[in-house]
């Protein structure tokens, strides 16, 4: 058995001081025991996917490298969905695990081969060195990616790092981009998750003011400019009709740290037919016949452009468009229960504005991104990078452990809860202040609404209505079943002193189709990218 070296715990303690999220097995037991002996904060989880998801949630919220540790073989394979999700979200996490090199062992698995096939970086050092942890964490931070760290195998060093900085970044803005922006009539600026991570939001907002531009964000940067009068909200499927129409009138779009994939652009429909689109990102840019890519840091691009392009008359069109884009959305009348939009809008009023919102994947999650807001910066963790339900609760627990004074709100569906509810026991044990909003329609709602019109039997995606509040109480959490809006007021006293998790089981109308709420076409434009 290739056990995790015990002395690596000393290095993790010295290097990061971060909590280690994990589940102990024979291959990592001594490592975790040593870390706790050193006074390190070990957070025991219920499932290995939860370890990686919690570490990712913590890393995203703390803007540091997260650490997870799991057992070899089946322990590692249990992490794969969360690992791929972190990889696609560009979240720096190291996963410390063992590996059994005996191919006849029941727990043997080709860990390196799995990482290769998933595109996930890994490292197998040739020595038990104090520098290994430091080097691995540095690699994860620089490349913004998870790295799987395996014990030495007494063979030469083997590693696989996916380096996106294989080409040098641009030193200056191309002339054709400058000329296009100087001649533009209407400019829209899109900020994505990359802009948030680069710390460039203030410079981007100043540039928008100088250019008289409209400000919008991808879903992953939702709320980044919430208090800015030029901000019209998110683009893609979450956009209001007014925001989408305003975007279509723009002849120039500058996107900072946003992938502009088919989700965030609503299949390209947010751009006018003659629009010129520039995407600014330091990472490798995909080839696109419509989008011109510039490999440059967002802040550097914004500063240089502001120094080159003169300020223009600040016409009212962008301010008017932003105001229209932020107008309250109309609500329908539910037939069989609560309208999730009304639930989320009421919670938006009840929960203090100093909040963090963590979204699982699932049918109603898009509505949460539309109706729950943050007004003091981008603190929305959007769980669509792998479009996998069931990771959001663990991410929220990790994010809440940053202890930055924010109320952490996790929104998930009953499908995701079925996969992850046991992680609530971790939040109970550690008395983590976490508000869990469970949107309960007794179904995998997306599948029901996608396939019901075709005449297919959708009962395979429907469940018996469960009382998740009772389940949460058994695990030791406070909880309330919500059947009418006034039931939401139960969180009032908890908000005064949140000494552990509180779950709201919101039993909503299962006939409401979130996809048709979002778009006229009835097609969900889930933004799973930057």
From TrEMBL:
<dbReference type="GO" id="GO:0030976">
    <property type="term" value="F:thiamine pyrophosphate binding"/>
</dbReference>
<dbReference type="Pfam" id="PF00205">
    <property type="entry name" value="TPP_enzyme_M"/>
</dbReference>
<feature type="domain" description="Thiamine pyrophosphate enzyme TPP-binding">
    <location>
        <begin position="362"/>
        <end position="505"/>
    </location>
</feature>
<dbReference type="GO" id="GO:0009097">
    <property type="term" value="P:isoleucine biosynthetic process"/>
</dbReference>
<comment type="similarity">
    <text>Belongs to the TPP enzyme family.</text>
</comment>
<keyword id="KW-0786">Thiamine pyrophosphate</keyword>
<dbReference type="GO" id="GO:0005948">
    <property type="term" value="C:acetolactate synthase complex"/>
</dbReference>
<dbReference type="Pfam" id="PF02776">
    <property type="entry name" value="TPP_enzyme_N"/>
</dbReference>
<dbReference type="InterPro" id="IPR012000">
    <property type="entry name" value="Thiamin_PyroP_enz_cen_dom"/>
</dbReference>
<dbReference type="InterPro" id="IPR029035">
    <property type="entry name" value="DHS-like_NAD/FAD-binding_dom"/>
</dbReference>
<dbReference type="InterPro" id="IPR029061">
    <property type="entry name" value="THDP-binding"/>
</dbReference>
<dbReference type="GO" id="GO:0003984">
    <property type="term" value="F:acetolactate synthase activity"/>
</dbReference>
<dbReference type="InterPro" id="IPR012001">
    <property type="entry name" value="Thiamin_PyroP_enz_TPP-bd_dom"/>
</dbReference>
<dbReference type="Pfam" id="PF02775">
    <property type="entry name" value="TPP_enzyme_C"/>
</dbReference>
<dbReference type="InterPro" id="IPR045229">
    <property type="entry name" value="TPP_enz"/>
</dbReference>
<dbReference type="GO" id="GO:0000287">
    <property type="term" value="F:magnesium ion binding"/>
</dbReference>
<dbReference type="InterPro" id="IPR011766">
    <property type="entry name" value="TPP_enzyme_TPP-bd"/>
</dbReference>
<feature type="domain" description="Thiamine pyrophosphate enzyme N-terminal TPP-binding">
    <location>
        <begin position="20"/>
        <end position="109"/>
    </location>
</feature>
<protein>
    <submittedName>
        <fullName>Unannotated protein</fullName>
    </submittedName>
</protein>
<dbReference type="GO" id="GO:0050660">
    <property type="term" value="F:flavin adenine dinucleotide binding"/>
</dbReference>
<feature type="domain" description="Thiamine pyrophosphate enzyme central">
    <location>
        <begin position="179"/>
        <end position="304"/>
    </location>
</feature>
<dbReference type="GO" id="GO:0009099">
    <property type="term" value="P:L-valine biosynthetic process"/>
</dbReference>
């Amino acid at each position: 058995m290739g056990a995790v070296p015990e002395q690596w715990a000393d290095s993790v303690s010295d290097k990061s001081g971060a909590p280690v999220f994990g589940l102990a097995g024979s291959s990592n037991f001594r490592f975790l025991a040593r870390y706790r002996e050193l006074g390190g904060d070990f957070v025991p989880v219920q499932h290995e996917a939860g370890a990686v998801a919690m570490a990712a949630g913590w890393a995203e919220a703390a803007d540091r490298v997260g650490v997870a540790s799991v057992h070899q073989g089946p322990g590692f394979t249990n992490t794969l969905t969360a690992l791929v999700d972190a990889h696609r979200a560009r979240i720096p996490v190291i996963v410390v695990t063992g590996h059994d090199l005996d191919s006849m062992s029941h727990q043997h698995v080709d860990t390196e081969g799995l990482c290769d096939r998933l595109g996930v970086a890994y490292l197998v050092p040739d020595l038990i060195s104090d520098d290994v942890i430091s080097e691995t964490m540095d690699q994860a931070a620089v490349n913004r990616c998870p790295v799987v760290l395996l014990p030495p195998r007494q063979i030469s060093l083997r590693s696989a790092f996916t380096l996106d900085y294989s080409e040098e970044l641009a030193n200056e803005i191309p002339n054709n981009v400058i000329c296009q922006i100087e001649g533009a009539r209407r400019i829209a600026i899109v900020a994505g998750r990359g802009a948030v991570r680069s710390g460039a939001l203030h410079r981007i907002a100043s540039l928008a003011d100088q250019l008289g531009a409209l400000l919008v964000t991808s879903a992953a940067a939702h709320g980044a400019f919430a208090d800015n009068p030029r901000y019209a909200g998110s683009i893609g499927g979450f956009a209001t009709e007014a925001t989408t129409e305003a975007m279509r009138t723009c002849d120039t779009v500058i996107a900072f740290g946003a992938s502009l994939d088919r989700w965030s652009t609503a299949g390209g429909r947010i751009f006018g037919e003659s629009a010129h689109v520039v995407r600014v990102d330091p990472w490798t840019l995909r080839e696109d016949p419509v989008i011109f890519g510039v490999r440059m840091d967002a802040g550097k691009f914004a500063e240089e452009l502001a120094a080159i392009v003169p300020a223009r008359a600040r016409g009212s069109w962008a301010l008017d468009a932003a105001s229209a884009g932020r107008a309250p959305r109309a609500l329908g009348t539910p037939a069989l229960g609560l309208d999730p939009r009304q639930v989320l809008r009421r919670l938006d009023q009840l929960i203090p504005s100093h909040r963090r919102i963590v979204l699982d994947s699932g049918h109603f999650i898009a509505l949460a991104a539309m109706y729950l807001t943050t007004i003091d910066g981008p603190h929305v963790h959007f769980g669509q990078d792998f479009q996998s339900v069931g990771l959001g609760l663990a991410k929220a627990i990790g994010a809440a452990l940053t202890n930055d004074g924010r109320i952490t709100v996790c929104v998930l569906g009953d499908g995701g809860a079925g996969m992850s509810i046991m992680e609530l026991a971790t939040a109970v044990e550690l008395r983590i202040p976490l508000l869990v909003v469970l949107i309960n329609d007794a179904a995998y709602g997306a599948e029901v609404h996608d396939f019901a019109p075709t005449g297919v039997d959708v009962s395979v995606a429907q469940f018996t209505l469960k009382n998740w509040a009772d389940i949460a109480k058994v695990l030791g959490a406070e909880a309330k079943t919500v059947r009418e809006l006034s039931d939401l007021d139960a969180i009032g006293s908890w908000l005064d002193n949140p000494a552990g998790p509180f779950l709201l089981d919101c039993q909503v109308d299962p006939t409401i189709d979130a996809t048709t709420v979002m778009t006229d076409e009835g097609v969900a434009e889930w933004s799973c990218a930057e």
